[in-house]
Amino acid sequence: MVSRTKGPPANCGYLNETHAVVATKISCMRVRINTASCRASPSSAVLSFGTSLPIDEMSRHLLREPRWPAFVAMLAAGGVYLALPEPLSVGPSWLLLSVIVFLMIPIVISDRRGDHQVTRTLTFTANGIITIAMIASLIHLVQGIPNHLEAPKALLRSASALWVTNILIFALWYWKLDAGGPLLRERPGGMAHSAFLFPQLMGRDNQDSSWSPNFVDYLFLAFNTSTAFSPTDTAVLSRWAKFATMLQSIISLTIIALLAARAVNIL
Question: Which of 171, 205, 231, 240 pairs as cysteine with 222 (C-beta 3.0–4.6 A)?
Answer without folding.
Answer: 171
